[in-house]
Write a structure and sequence with these properties.
Strand order of the largest sheet: 1-5-4-3-2
Strand content: 35-45%
Order of helices and strands: HHEEEEEEEEEEEEEEE
Number of helices: 2
Number of strands: 15
Radius of gyration: 26 Å
Distance between the termini: 105 Å
Oligomer: single chain
Helix content: 10-25%
Mean pLDDT: 71
Low-confidence stretches: 27-44, 133-145, 191-199
Largest sheet: 5 strands, antiparallel
Length: 199
Amino acid sequence: MNLSQLFKRNQLLFLVTLLTGLFLVPQTLTAQHRSRAKRQKTSGRHISYLPRGFNHFVHGKQRFYHRRGLFYRKSGYGFALIRGPIGFRVKHLPIGFTSVYFSGHPYYYYYGTYYRFDPVNDDYIICNKPDEEDDDADFNHQSGLDEIQLSNGKIYHGKYLGGDSETIRIEIDGIEKKIPIKDIISIQYANPLDSEDDE
């Protein structure tokens, strides 16, 4: 049996082997790339080079680098993995965040960085750990709700009871009402907690 007869006889087997080989090579290369990216996230506080696809920005006169919810700053050893800069805003939370509640308020945590939702700007702002003093976020120190203005023109007056990432709860004339955060234009708080006992 010569080579051409062998090829004709096993043509289907040859084609399946060739196609399988073509599909396995890209998956092997992709798997190697992903494992390298995973090592960067968990290898410690410093990396020698930035991950592919990073964004850079200036916040508070300092340059930062950002990718998939992780923040870096240039250091003597390359780049340091750091907490996100306080006050920096992002449109979306990173994949894999954890929801946490402090004093009834929702916060979101990812790799050392805490976020809180800002319904007025429809984004998330990086803040201090909620149990630390956070001068830029009077959000933690609100006890009463004076007024909520909605996108449809309605205005509610009531007492703030808490909320989650999608709704807030207020008490209006003894009745609890849930309001979707996406419908809120502005919130005006009435009585900050830190002004109660001024002795």
